[in-house]
Target: Two-component system chemotaxis response regulator CheY
Amino acid sequence: MANRILIVDDAAFMRMMIRDILSKNGFEVVGEAQDGSQAIEKFKELRPDLITMDITMPEMDGIAALKEIKKVDANAKVIMCSAMGQQAMVIDAIQAGAKDFIVKPFQADRVIEAISKTLGV
Model:
């Protein structure tokens, strides 16, 4: 069975880029969310194997959402996505329980490497 992934990003084109990379590499995108609060709801509903989570979003940012998701499931696997120059936020995310991070603009091989490593596939 394909690994089920939830994509969280406030930019539709970023979600589309990740969905495209994942689909071409045999992963199943089970849902998308455009902010942290949606991400939490979708996580509870879909129980994906992994979440790609943008850090900077309206409503609730990715780090706050990560912390809430970890309360729901301590074993949740989350990979943070950030633009260049957000190292402090990335460190916060790792401390909050993120498994890895990928930098925008996305490079397909790095996205697949991070996801494969996190899922152990």
About this structure: The mean pLDDT is 94. The longest strand covers residues 28-33.
